């Protein structure tokens, strides 16, 4: 791999490229939040929109990321082209399921024209996100980190049109449809960029999707339910609870993405290449120290952002400025779990490359169960900050379980 300073230099450059792409792409998440707060405010319509979007995000934001994580080591070691038609069929089924579920949980009239259009938009979003996952994995394995993140910037077009629409903005369903169309273009672009790794025919070896990723998919499906369950619990209270949690979670999510996604794709490739080499032990120690320092630095940045939030209150108008207090407190509660969130990403990738993917299912179940139970207790007492605190504490629980598993493995190997 070369001298240590060269390895670290290459890693930092690749982390930088990946972070630039992710920061640019994920910025649309915050822009979407600010646009919605300014034009819609905290309302029942916003609650329905956020619940539907949370279902779509379960596919394009959670399961798609897990597919990327599962396939990167495979693409690193094996450069053969893979048949993708079978995988496309599975993504269509997953997308349709997400559309049906979103129409059910959003709370609006599911069989009205707008309800059907919303379900179709969520179906397209989910399908497109899952289709883009193998392409992103192939690009990451080739150290091409910019495109997967930058391509999220396509969402800026429908968001900008919605913001600049004269007089009264169109219904939120049109924004949802625009986001779905942007996601479809993103999937097509990434598949074209990685076309040398795939066969769009029923020949050749197919993606080792189920055999490679099944434990990860189960773990992600369980852990990925947390945002949906959190929003559902918030919907049981007063109107606007979902919108409040959504606003806080999107701000926190943008910070968490900036802090972890840029490093995660690079880290997974390096851990896969380090596995079984003489440099593995020292390399892993360096990764742990660097990741801990990185997580604490981002915690400081997040708290500084919390302190600066009141300066943005006037931009949202008087009504929404009054709602900034609960949003701010919920964001702070979520932020307290940021170090654990970053470290679970690092520790989880280590478990994956060590062959312990199945243990992630048990850990995800423990974290999800704790989060749901704690949220059900704390939400009636302190509101949405209680949900945020429950999520933060569940992340520390999962991190502790991962550390325990890795310590047991080291003791077993040394004995």
Structure in words:
The protein is mostly helical and 415 residues long. Helix content is 80%, strand content 1%. The protein has 16 helices and two strands. It has helices at residues 4-39, 44-77, 85-105, 113-141, 146-150, 156-164, 172-193, 209-223, 225-235, 241-274, 280-308, 317-322, 324-335, 338-353, 359-382, 384-414; strands at 82-83, 198-199. It has a two-stranded parallel ribbon with strand order 1-2. The two termini are 29 Å apart.
Short description:
Helices cover 80% and strands 1% of the residues.
Question: Which helices and strands, and how do they pair?
Answer:
Layout: H1 4-39, H2 44-77, E1 82-83, H3 85-105, H4 113-141, H5 146-150, H6 156-164, H7 172-193, E2 198-199, H8 209-223, H9 225-235, H10 241-274, H11 280-308, H12 317-322, H13 324-335, H14 338-353, H15 359-382, H16 384-414
Parallel strand pairs: 1-2
Which key phrases capture this entry?
single chain, 415 residues, mainly alpha, two-stranded parallel sheet, 16 helices, 2 strands, globular
Q: How many E-type strands?
A: 2
H-E order: HHEHHHHHEHHHHHHHHH
Poorly predicted runs of 5 or more residues:
none
Structural class: mainly alpha
Fraction in beta strands: under 5%
Q: End-to-end span in angstroms? A: 29 Å
Molecular shape = globular
């Amino acid at each position: 791999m070369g001298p240590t300073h060269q390895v670290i230099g290459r890693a930092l450059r690749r982390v930088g490229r990946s972070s630039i792409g992710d920061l640019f792409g994920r910025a649309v998440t915050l822009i979407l939040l600010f646009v919605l707060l300014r034009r819609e405010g905290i309302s029942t319509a916003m609650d329905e929109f956020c619940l539907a979007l949370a279902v779509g995000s379960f596919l394009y934001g959670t399961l798609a990321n897990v597919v990327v994580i599962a396939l990167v080591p495979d693409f690193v070691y094996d450069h053969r082209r893979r048949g993708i038609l079978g995988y496309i069929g599975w993504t269509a089924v997953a997308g349709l399921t997400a559309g049906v579920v979103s129409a059910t949980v959003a709370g609006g009239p599911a069989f009205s024209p707008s309800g059907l259009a919303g379900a179709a938009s969520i179906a397209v979003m989910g399908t497109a996100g899952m289709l883009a996952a193998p392409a992103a994995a192939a690009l990451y394995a080739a150290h091409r980190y910019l495109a997967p993140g930058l391509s999220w910037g396509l969402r800026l077009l429908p968001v900008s049109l919605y913001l600049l629409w004269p007089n009264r903005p169109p219904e939120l369903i049109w924004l949802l449809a625009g986001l779905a169309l942007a996601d479809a273009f993103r999937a097509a672009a990434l598949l074209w960029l990685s076309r040398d790794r795939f066969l769009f025919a029923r020949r050749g070896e197919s993606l080792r999707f189920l055999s490679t990723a099944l434990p990860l998919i189960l773990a992600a499906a369980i852990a990925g339910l947390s945002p949906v369950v959190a929003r559902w619990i918030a919907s049981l209270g007063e109107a606007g609870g979902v919108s409040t949690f959504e606003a806080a979670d999107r701000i926190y999510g943008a910070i968490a993405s900036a802090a972890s996604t840029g490093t995660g794709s690079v880290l997974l490739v390096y851990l896969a290449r380090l596995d079984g080499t003489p440099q593995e032990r020292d390399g892993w120690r360096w990764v742990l120290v660097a990741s801990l320092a990185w997580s604490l630095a981002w915690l400081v940045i997040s708290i500084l952002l919390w302190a600066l939030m009141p300066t943005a209150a006037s931009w949202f108008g008087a009504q929404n400025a009054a709602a900034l207090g609960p949003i701010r407190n919920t964001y702070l509660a979520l932020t307290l779990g940021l170090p654990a969130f970053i470290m679970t990403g690092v520790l989880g990738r280590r478990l994956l490359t060590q062959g312990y993917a199945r243990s992630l299912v048990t850990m995800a179940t423990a974290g999800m169960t704790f989060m749901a139970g704690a949220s059900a207790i704390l939400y009636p007492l302190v509101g949405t900050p209680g949900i945020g605190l429950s999520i933060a504490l569940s992340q520390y629980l999962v991190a502790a379980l991962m550390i325990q598993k890795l310590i047991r493995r080291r003791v077993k190997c040394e004995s």
